[in-house]
Specification:
182 residues; mainly alpha; MetI-like fold; 8 helices
């Protein structure tokens, strides 16, 4: 859920933060949003969200969404700034508006990178979810901490094996998607 929301929100923020497609005030706002979302470690953000919305998965989702926005939006903004400007100029010359230029001139050029970043962010969020869960932001991290607190090391080891298994499955899925796209 956090990866979907983070990647979905990162696309408009990346467009805002790309100097070649956004006016200066919008560019500065987009860059400010990226800087704010990248300023703090996810554990610190998780603690803040746990204090704001309470213990549970909502705090974890919000934390990882913010974490995803900072990473994906920054790299996508840089990708947008490096696009082939010839396609955009060709569309402008035939009278295409701003949104048509974005949809048909900019987004197709960044789509392979967007998919790769989304897959990487999914992997990263799966790993980070265990860590933010330790501070009370829901998920498997809280269960892992409880197992360690009860000295139930067999159960804790089983949880660690499950985390490794989930990451392996995610990595396989990510490789499959990359193969289909490229």
């Amino acid at each position: 859920m956090a990866t979907l929301m983070g990647v979905g929100l990162s696309l408009p923020i990346a467009v805002m933060a790309a100097k070649n497609v956004a006016p200066l005030p919008v560019y500065l706002l987009g860059r400010a949003l990226i800087v704010i979302s990248r300023s703090f470690h996810p554990v610190i953000v998780a603690i803040l969200f746990v204090a704001a919305v309470g213990f549970g998965p909502l705090a974890g989702i919000l934390t990882l969404t913010l974490y995803s926005i900072g990473f994906v939006a920054k790299l996508l903004a840089e990708e947008i700034e490096e696009i082939d400007w010839g396609q955009v100029e060709a569309m402008r010359s035939v009278g295409a508006g701003y949104f048509k230029i974005l949809v048909f001139g900019v987004f197709p050029q960044i789509m392979p990178r967007q998919i790769g970043l989304s897959m990487y962010q999914l992997d990263s969020n799966l790993r980070a979810s265990a860590v933010v869960g330790i501070v009370g932001a829901g998920g498997i991290g809280g269960t892992l901490m409880n197992a360690f607190g009860r000295y139930d090391y067999d159960f804790a080891f089983a949880i660690l094996l499950m985390i490794i298994g989930i990451i392996l499955i995610s990595e396989g899925f990510s490789g499959w998607v990359r193969k289909k796209v490229w």
